[in-house]
Queue: 3 jobs
Job 1
Amino acid sequence: MKRCPVCGSAVEPVVPLGRMPLANGFLRQEDFPSEYFFQLTLGFCEGCAMVQLVENVPREKMFHAEYPFFTASSTRMAEHFRAWAEQVARERLSAPRSFVVEIGSNDGTLLQVFATAGISHLGVEPSANVAAVAQSKGVNTVCRFFDEKAARDIVREHSEADAVLAANCFCHIQDLHTLAAGLQVLLKPKGVVIFEDPYLGDIIERVAYDQIYDEHAYYFSLASVTHWLSRHGFEIVDVQPQATHGGSMRYVVARCGELNATSQVDVQRRKETTLGLHSPETYRQLNVNVRRSRDELIELLQRLKRHATRVVGYAATSKSTTVLNYCRISTDLLEFISDTTPIKHGRFSPGMHIPVRSHKEFQAPYPDYALLFAWNHADEIIEKERAFCQAGGQWITYVPRVEVLDYATS
Ligand code: TMP
Ligand code: ZN
């Protein structure tokens, strides 16, 4: 039985998703025999409401010099980060010699805005290849994992930070107490930590079970984040729902007593009670919904196969690994997956070993159906792929429900 790393209570396994490879472990054929697997199970801690993985994968297996995800691969996400950075610069970094740190800075998409504005900044990024891309854009980046030692080094070599930012990063950090201890060291007395991650309430409401994978050690709610951070002298002073990643939450954190909390914090707290995020029953129902989603997707793909239609996957996302392996979808149902990231081309999807090909092959010729694994970028993708629908192609999604989208005539 797993004990919750935040509060020490027993973690109840609630959604078992089976034997799973690394979500971003896109591999070559010669590496099939040594592929790494673990048991992917979502767990719920009734003690502090923290939803988390029951089994964790060692971090070096996930974040390394061949990390295949680049923030800049989505133009909408790049716009989202630009708007956020401009707001932070305006509201928090107007004083001379202000200093901002981003944890998990990836290819520097967010920090680049500060770099261009001449604001002192530093990214902390453990995956060497993406860190190198950031450095090549003139974004100051250190390649390492963030912890208390890293925080001390940053304070010694630069200064304490006015703002510490993190996007889709904290939920990847297994040792939350070490993370919070690092934030204590790094933050100025009146500084703020602002972080955003996929929001548990949206995952449950939309049955977005593909958000569950090795890298996402935690599935945060306001309740669980409050419990965790209050143990380290921090409080949440604002929450701002975001549309990104199918529903995220941005949390603004300050040292206890330093800033007044907005009324949104109470509003969100009440919403979470209504959503039942504290109740084990909610997670049992989620498991029922996840199984139903799987059954419906398999049935749809098998039906399409019987009609001899061509179905390909669109975007070899980390999320797709959970869906493909949980539903046991292989090349008999899905011909290949098209993706824009060169490092993934010629490789195979983790576990089910579906070939990943360049976007060119998506167009030549178009398939009958495309299973949209990047459903969180649906607007952006459907708009730029209008020619696919004009050629008679149809999109399949599975979030919030399994369906063929009706865009053919638009
Ligand atoms: P992620 O969901 O794991 O963050 O990865 C997104 C993947 O989707 C990444 O490999 C790039 C790919 N992608 C496309 O192939 N086409 C697109 O239009 C978009 C937005 C993403
Ligand atoms: Zn707990």
Note: Residues 299-406 form a domain with the Rossmann fold fold (CATH 3.40.50.720).
Job 2
Amino acid sequence: MDMEIKTVGVVGGGQMGSGIAQVAAMSGLQVIMCDVSEDVLRQGLQKITEILNRNVKKGKMSPEEKEEILGRVITTVVNEDLAAADFVVEAATESEAIKFQIFRDLDVICSPGVILATNTSSIPIGRIAAHTKRPDKVIGMHFMNPVPVMKLVEVIRGITTSDDTFKSTWDLALKFGKTPVQAQDYPGFIANRILMPMLNEAIFCLYHGVGKREDIDTVMKLGLNHPMGPLALADLIGLDTCLAIMETLYHGFSDSKYRPCPLLLRYVEAGWLGRKTGRGFYEYE
Ligand code: NAD
């Protein structure tokens, strides 16, 4: 069934949700951004406004265009408001319990034809889909951070995802101005399957004393042209998030090659989560 998508629902107005709302509004769609927190929604809208203001300043868009884009974004703390959406992208907290409940709710709230996509970094799509009566219409739509800047979207097919659902999601990613790639529903999909073991190995290098933190990062920057060193990148992503994804890979494949470095575990246990707590592999203001 080919339904024209005019209104996109975004569940979660945090870091990723507000970015997804922004790109959807910039591509001309109406957006309903839903979060459990009024504060988050206010901050999310503020963040979008600041980015658009910068675009106006740089001459990339007119003040009128900015107002039109902002005018297309509605925020709400009432789940039922998502009934008006033709397509939903869920970008709430990375927790199975939270996502399962959201998908059970969305399944009731949204009309039967509506596709329910998830931005999860690590939860199997099939496991989320099983909480709905429309498993053929559940799919992964994995954006990169920061969403307005990064071109890639991984479109992840669960074992039950239909071809129609895949095609509509793929086309929506294109409409957002992104470059989609197709991934199958295995732990970490493609991006985190490759990235996280690399970051984890950099942490092992530090753990084994192969190099100092600066030297490990310099090797990857100057030796492999990475824009950031792996330890600095792990700090940016959040060490708790890195650990959670490594554990998903480790348990998902039952393979010791994905075991999280004990040093990563120690840092997370100490509350050294990276930039967000002021300390990770580096210290921040
Ligand atoms: P975040 O903490 O910034 O935002 C999550 C938001 O979800 C919070 O504002 C929270 O209030 C809200 N929320 C919690 N329960 C809710 C509910 N029942 N209904 C509506 N909103 C609810 O987190 P984030 O970094 O934006 O991550 C969101 C999702 O995107 C996660 O699944 C994460 O794995 C994924 N992701 C994150 C990144 C990244 O780099 N941060 C990259 C790709 C994908």
Note: Residues 11-17, 34-37, 40, 91-94, 98, 102, 119-121, 142-143, 145, 237 surround nicotinamide-adenine-dinucleotide (CB under 6 Å).
Job 3
Amino acid sequence: MHQSNIAMIGLGVMGKSLALNLLDHGFNVTGYDINQQNRLQLEREANTLAEHESKGRFFSAENLSQLLGSLEKPRVIALSVPAGSIVESVVDELLSVGLSHDDIVIDTGNSLWTDTEAREKKYAGQLRFFSTAVSGGEVGARFGPALMASGDESAWQYVQPMWQAIAAKVDEHGLPVDPFEKGEPCAAYLGPAGAGHYVKMVHNGIEYADMQLICEAYHFMSQVLSMSAVDIGRVFERWNRGVLNSYLMEISADILQTCDPVTGQPFVEVVLDKAGQKGTGLWTAVNSLHQGAAAPTIAQAVFARAISAQKSVRTQLSKQFPFAGGKSHCLEHQQVLDELEDALYCAKLVVYAQGFDLMRNMSDQEGWQLEFATIAKVWRAGCIIRAGFLQMISQAFDTDKTLNHLLLADDFVESLQSRMKGWRATTANSALYASPMPGIASALHYFDSLRCETLPANLLQAQRDYFGSHTYARVDVPENESFHLTWSGTVREQVKA
Ligand code: 6PG
């Protein structure tokens, strides 16, 4: 009788690719999808794979009872269904056809981490609810994604061999290797339920911001330096060979050098400038506001998408306020490009620092004990934000387990100091030439605020006390003592609150 190691429910782009990846690595997989076409499509592709002996066997289940019957025990069932209430509907249906308390159900979607926490509680005692956030899109899922697992620790021992086999791999220098070669897998157990989805959410927040930074550089080069898309693509290609090496830089270089097959124009110029979003960046920004852990560059990236969607207002305002400012030909082209490269690097580093700071806050709050070096290692390959400098980030957290903020790591202090001038010049140019850089500028303001020992929050506290008697602490007495000044009377006196 056929015994599968794992079942996949939901055989859309991601579910199908994960299933094929598992088969590739010799695991027997059962597949089920409410849409029969998806199941038959996977069946066809799995049959082609099956011609190779080393591959796992595929079993196509026509219903959930067949699916359960095809699995070895404890059963491991991965869900690749849209985030939201559908996850629970599927789990409830599985329970109704006979799941046992030992069985493991893994949510591989982009679920909101609080939903995952709630689901683990809801299903406790009925099954082992586990989660694994997947990054890398279709190609990643098919040939090596980054996998962020969390939940029931006892479930991890069943899941781990499969996840580590199919994940992207890196060599000892943190460079991607063929997923069939020996290497360190980009798959790890990160903590209790919710932790993995939280880390993936922050990954996506960083993704939004990193994309925005690259787009700002492109916009400036195109609008202010009048460079063609192809030339910008070539510069990105060069940058991708240096400190800015990343998947997002690589694909941007490729996109910019691609022609539209319909018109022959640069492809990027025929794409409408209105950005969509599914919401994970928004979740990150909202979470940062709730926590009081600043991630302004991630929030700016979400706002930038919202502003891009206001196309008709932008069109009207561009006519009302045409830019009649300075002349870009006064700029020394190569110098400006070098400064821009420095600015991108600094802002990118700040974005990652904001993301890790968020995770530190949440980990402390939830008692997750997240290991930041492990997270950076998982992100070195397979995921969308994979970048050369994640190796440095993992080393920084490995060297100092108590590192409070990424910007305090020795290597990053030096690399920021040497690039600071370019970052400031670029931000100044963006204002002078009216080329919006909300990401690059907000990263600089975040950095400048953090490095300011004294901020004007003294005046702010005084204002709050003035109109609302909200009290203030003093610099010359212990901070836990608070005071109020009698602002309304003719004589201003301090009273202890
Ligand atoms: C990944 C991606 C993936 C998805 C984004 C797209 O890690 O593989 O992040 O999860 O492509 O969520 O997000 P938007 O549609 O919101 O840009």
Note: The mean pLDDT is 96.
